[in-house]
Every structure is written in structure tokens, then in C-alpha cells.
Write a structure and sequence with these properties.
The chain is of the alpha/beta class and 331 residues long. It contains 13 helices and twelve strands. It is globular, with a radius of gyration of 20 Å. The chain starts with a helix and ends in a 5-residue tail after the last helix. The relative contact order is 0.10.
Length: 331
């Protein structure tokens, strides 16, 4: 029903703006590109505008050159009737795009359990592995044929948000959709290499520095690491180079919660990414700092310097682990 409502709105309008969350990754960009293709197939005018740039490791996706940044718009007034916001649980998470869409009709399509349903119409399904999965379903409901370019973008969206189909958000439906997509012109080996196996020498030097300075609590249940602007500058790197470091640290035996603290480039706070390997809900932890996401993977921004952010974070996570330990065991 909700998909039909969204498609009915699309049919009634001509010009659309698509946007997603700050610091976009595979699901955000892949979903935007596939959504734009669907709209163009329906003879609509589309612009994709984000706060931040596309990460280097997904620049191979077809159509990625059409993605614009708020900063590049200058004083231009973007003409559109409907804004489609993908993969963002709140309006605050879309950065400067929030000002552009003010007063416009908003469609929100998201899979975060923390979504606050900020749109005029909201399709939020936390059971979906990714927004890419939802765009696949929207294609099917529209009866528009998925083309090779859209199939690749959706595949990247799903693969990156499931950690190459390793995370708990991977379902039988996720695998079914991936199988359908692989019937198109997709070289899955090349996609994987582009995203996960193409790192610069300096990225590995940074990783070595990160691993040398790993921290954990005395009980070894919480492990965290930090990346500062000084570390990035010293290695001549940009912030998107280390997004997948947390997947490696997550492998540490005994760790129940893992956190990645990255100093924001503007110096106005610390971005924190969380991963949970048990039933500790990191979405709840992230909400403490105004963030959110999923039970097993969430994020937030702590508007403090690195040392202060680290102390605050340690206290909150330790409390969460303590509460988990105090819960009666289920037999």
C-alpha cells in the first residue's frame, strides 16, 4: 500500500530532488542512483544533492558523476516539487540539504529502526537489510524494468550495508534479491575488489597506527579506536578511507561493543560509529548522543573534543554492558 502511495505521488509531479545522509556510503549513494533511474524511466526530472561527496571506493557506479554537493550549488535555487530522502533517520542527518527542502513535500524511505518519520509520507521498514532492498521492491511495484545500471547500484547498496552478506540484517529475502540482481551485467568479483580491496599504501600506514593504539576495557567487552585530523593529514588521506576499519576491529574475540571515533574535519566534534556483536542495542547508546541507526550498527556525533568524547562514550557503553550483565538469563 505504501509503495503505491509513493508511486502515485511520483506520477503526479514532474521535478524531484533526491538526498541522503551526511558522509554517504554504498547504500546511500547506490539507492539514490537507482531511485534517480526509476524516476527518469517515469519521465521525471531529477537532481541528486548531498551534503558530502561520494567516497572514492564507490565512484565506479554508473551515474555517480550526477551526484552534486550542497557546497557546489552556491546561490542556485534548485527547482523541484518533491524531495525524496533516502537512508536517513532524521532531517538533521542530511546536513545542508535540510534548508533546500524546507517547505517542500517530502517522501522518506528508510530502514533505520531509529527513524522519526519526518516526511509527509514515510516508508520505514527496519526488516529490510538496506534502502537498496527497498528500491528494488519499488521497481517491482512500478512495473518498470530494472536496467543493468540500476541493478549494479542496488547490488552495491545491499552488499555494503550487509557487510558482504555477513551481518545479522541479511535475510533469505536479501539473498533472493541479490540472486536476481546477479542475472544482470554485474561482475561481483570486481565490485568486491573495488569496494574492499583497493586501498592506498598510506591507508595501510594509518591502519597500522590505529591498530597500535587500540583500547579496551578491563573486561575486554568494549573495544574502541580513534582517528584524528592530524593522523589523516599526516598520511595525506580523506575521511572516507577508513570507514571499513571497524569491520576489522569487530573481529576481536570477546568484544561485545566496538566503536570508531573519528574527529570531524571541521573540528566541531567527533563522529562515532558503533557495532554490537551481542544483544546490546547500540542504537540506544547512539540515541544518548542524538544519533541512532540499528540495534547492531549505529552512529552519532558527540560535539566535544576527542578526549571529552572518549570519556563520555566510555561511561555510557560501560553502563550499557553492566545493564546487560544484570539482566536475568533466559533459559
Amino acid at each position: 500500500m505504501i509503495k503505491k502511495q509513493i508511486l502515485d505521488i511520483i506520477k503526479k509531479h514532474k521535478r524531484f530532488l533526491i538526498a541522503g545522509h551526511i558522509n554517504p556510503e554504498g547504500d546511500a549513494i547506490g539507492s539514490q542512483l537507482a531511485m534517480a533511474n526509476l524516476l527518469k524511466m517515469m519521465d521525471k526530472e531529477v537532481r541528486i544533492v548531498n551534503q558530502d561527496c561520494v567516497p572514492k571506493n564507490i565512484m565506479f557506479m554508473p551515474g555517480v558523476e550526477s551526484v552534486e554537493q550542497v557546497e557546489s550549488l552556491g546561490d542556485e535555487v534548485v527547482e523541484f516539487e518533491v524531495a525524496i530522502i533516502l537512508d536517513s533517520p532524521t532531517l538533521e542527518r542530511i546536513g545542508g540539504v535540510k534548508d533546500i527542502i524546507k517547505g517542500k513535500y517530502v517522501i522518506c524511505i528508510d530502514h533505520h529502526v531509529s527513524n522519526c518519520e519526518f516526511g509527509d509520507i514515510n516508508w520505514v521498514d527496519a526488516h529490510c537489510s538496506s534502502v537498496g532492498e527497498m528500491i528494488f521492491e519499488l521497481f517491482k511495484s512500478s512495473h518498470m524494468a530494472i536496467d543493468d545500471a540500476s541493478a549494479l547500484c542496488i547490488y552495491v547498496a545491499i552488499m555494503t550495508d550487509t557487510g558482504s552478506f555477513r551481518y545479522s540484517n541479511t535475510t533469505s529475502r536479501t539473498h533472493q534479491i541479490a540472486a536476481d540482481l546477479l542475472l544482470y551485467d554485474i561482475n561481483s568479483k570486481q565490485v568486491y575488489e573495488n569496494i574492499y580491496e583497493t586501498k592506498s599504501f598510506n591507508t595501510f600506514k594509518l591502519l597500522a597506527q590505529v591498530l597500535t593504539n587500540l583500547k579496551r576495557t578491563d573486561d575486554a567487552k568494549f573495544v574502541w579506536f580513534k582517528v584524528t585530523n592530524e593522523m589523516m593529514s599526516k598520511n595525506g588521506l580523506t575521511s572516507d578511507c577508513c570507514e571499513d576499519f571497524i569491520a576489522l576491529v569487530r573481529m576481536i574475540e570477546g568484544a561485545e561493543v566496538v566503536a570508531f571515533l573519528r574527529e570531524m574535519e571541521n573540528g566541531q566534534g567527533v563522529k562515532v560509529s558503533f557495532r554490537s556483536k551481542t544483544d546490546i542495542d547500540v542504537n540506544v547508546i547512539a540515541k544518548t548522543f542524538g544519533g541512532g541507526g540499528h540495534k547492531a550498527a549505529s552512529g552519532c556525533v558527540i560535539k566535544k573534543n576527542m578526549d571529552e568524547a572518549e570519556k563520555l562514550l566510555l561511561n555510557v557503553v560501560e553502563q550499557a554492558i553492566k545493564k546487560k550483565m544484570e539482566r536475568p538469563k533466559q533459559y
